[in-house]
Amino acid sequence: MAKDFSLMEDSNRSSNPSIHEVSPLSRRTVLRASLGALAGGFFAPLTAVAAASATVAGGMIGFKSVPISTADTISVPEGYTYQVIAPWGDPVGMSGENHAFKDDGSNSAAHQENQIGMHHDGIHFFEQDGSKSGLLAMNHEYVDHGLLFTDGMATWTAEKVRKSQAAHGVSIVEVEDKGGKWSVVNPSPWGRRITASTRTELSGPVVGHVMVKTAADPAGRVVLGTLNNCASGITPWGTYLTAEENFINYFSGGDSLSEHEKRWGMKKGSSYRWHEHDARFDAVKNPNEPNRFGWIVEIDPYNPSSTPMKRTAMGRGAHEGATVAVTKDKRAVVYMGEDARFEYIYKFVSRDAIKPGGAVANASLLDHGTLYVAKFNADGKGEWLALTHGQGPLTAANGFADQAEVLIKARQASDLLGATKMDRPEWVEVDKEGWVYAALTNNSNRGGDKQPVADAANPRANNTQGNIIRWKEDGDFHATSFAWAHFVMAGDPSLERAEAKGNIKGDMFSCPDGLWIDARGLMWIQLDMSTSAMGKGDLKNMGNNAMLAADPRTGEVRRFLVGPSGCEVTGATATPDGKTMFVNIQHPGEPANESNNPANPRAISNWPDQKPTGRPRSATVVIRKIDGGIIGT
User: Fold this and answer.
1) CA–CA separation, 351 vs 362, rounded Å?
2) What are the beta bridge partners of residue 586?
3) 244 φ, ψ to 5°?
4) Residue 180 class from Cβ within 10 Å (0-12 exposed, 13-18 middle, 19+ buried)?
5) Residue (of 301, 24, 23) closest to 135 by Cα position
6) How far apart are CA 393 and CA 416, in angstroms?
7) Neighbours of 462 (CB within 10 A)
8) Fold of 5-245+294-625
9) Is beta strand 309-311 parallel, antiparallel or unpaired with respect to 199-203?
């Protein structure tokens, strides 16, 4: 989920199994065996959750709407309760005072390398003992240096760069339900931090290509770290997919940028300033290093010694996430948005079928297949255009020497193919009817000077409100054509500007970002309204960022959760029985903490600790019904 710089600056039922109807095997067997062995098949219907969908008379949504709020707290519906776990800075996999969080920001880089990262985003629950214990894999998108350090960026050192890098990446924490209360398990052999310095590997067509070779890695295979990890996805074989979103912002270019660097948004200098003490992020000294980021990274959460793999066959981009669907012949189809104005929606279709046997049996499945980019036509039809070297304009004469170069330059390839430039496509989800949904957060630049004008798929100029688009593939998920429609246009009916009013059936919202469809088929929508623009203009009546539920069958929308002041509500996941939901809260207190000035980090929020001397911390909220029922009913 990108920070919203745009507003700061200005039809038959599918017989295919969706990812929500499959889950990895019970981990009880795995826990008795070795960490690396995942045996058995991958289809396991969530019958208890599916049956509950019939318990809600007249629709899928069974809770009373939560009102808009600007309070520095969490609001959930009547009959629900919540608790907070896994805040930034708590230990991962170990216990003891040596790794405890310090309110003044004085933890060292070594501490942070063994602590939960900053600014939680995508998340998934991987069960170990049914719905009683499991592993939470979660992303950490970026950092606020004003919170991370005692003095912000008043001084800048190699040690600070190391700590900043350590607060990025992914955390895997063991959690359990004890007597009706969830907690992180420490010490735990499963606890793991993957940071911007952890060894990862490139896999697939780009391995060894001249554009990814560096002096430190002449083989073009080993990359240190993953960063700006935004949305996430899961695979039917039990692994976690994490997306590297605005990676280019970490690199500093030179006075004269190449056309390739310009197309990817590189600039001279970087607000993160890593390049001042880590030459990897100086693109003048290491011009190929940026090409080693922007990939979908696959992680096996059940094997703490496994190496995260950057799956290059799925293309490079400022990816928001990766959502998996399964074709009738059991091939994996991965949908991806690229969260940037006027960028694209992609899908990857695996060459081979998913095999029984878990992560080990499917270790290279995502290394072979075809990448496509979407074109939405004005007649409500669409087509998937293959990013395949040698087809159409994707030739050496146009700057693509081979398939690896097509994948590294996926944006340029999509430009040449004439794909549809979208309004910041973020999370993508698939429902039980085979509809695929993409959240288009906003695009205040559409229709601006020398910018693309409104079109059928992106019908609003100066689009401050956003919308959700959906499509259904013609026959199967691997099809190359589809039919599309707008699911909902976000907005406030009280606004005078017609294009910002929206057509929501229920509670209004703006700037949809996160999408998650639970096992019953209920869609959860998370918002990314610019915190610097809240209470102003088109967002004046929206309150804090929130999460809503939508019934895909009726379009009804109700507000379920409102977050604390200055936050963004990010990833969501649930236990297999649907009775516990985990929701991430990111950057409480923004924008006060984003100036990198720690003088008053509690100016807007001190959630969740509520200490007079405490700093606001991203954290995970655990939500349950008081009567023990299934969430949303």
Assistant:
1) 12
2) 568
3) -95, 105
4) exposed
5) 301
6) 7
7) 18
8) Neuraminidase (2.120.10)
9) parallel
Taking only the tens place, the pLDDT of each residue in 372-389 is: 999 999 999 999 999 999
Q: What percentage of the chain carries pLDDT values higher than 90? A: 84
pTM, to two decimals: 0.93
How many C-beta atoms lie closer than 10 Å to residue 203's C-beta?
20
Domain ranges in the chain are: 5-245+294-625
Of the candidates 140, 189, 188, 130, the one whose C-alpha atom is nearest the C-alpha of residue 167 is 140
Distance CA 304, CA 23 (A): 20
Quick check: helix, strand or coil at residue 578? coil
Q: What are phi and psi of 26, to 5 degrees?
A: -55, 140
Residue 13 burial (10 A CB sphere; 0-12, 13-18, 19+): exposed
Using 50, 70 and 90 to split pLDDT, how confident is the model at 492? Answer: very high
**Strand bridging mode 323-326 / 309-311:** unpaired
DSSP count for the chain of H helices, then E strands: 10, 33
Cβ 483 vs Cβ 381: under 8 Å = yes
Which 3 state secondary structure label does DSSP give 561?
strand
632 and 60 Cβ atoms separated by less than 8 Å: yes
Tokens describing residue 209: 């290509």
Q: For residue 259, is it left (φ>0), alpha (ψ between -120 and 50) or beta?
A: alpha
Q: What is the pLDDT of residues 193-243, one digit of tens each?
A: 999 999 999 999 999 999 999 999 999 999 999 999 999 999 999 999 999
Q: For tokens 């009959």, what's the residue?
A: 79
Report which secondary-structure segment, H or E, holds 165.
helix 158-166
CA pair distance 255, 45, nearest whole angstrom = 56
Q: How far apart are CA 328 and CA 350, in angstroms?
A: 13
Using omega within 30 degrees of 0 as the cis cutoff, is the peptide bond preceding 187 cis?
yes
Phi then psi for residue 305, to 5 deg, are: -95, 0
**Would you place residue 99 in the very low, low, confident or very high pLDDT band (cuts 50, 70, 90)?**
confident
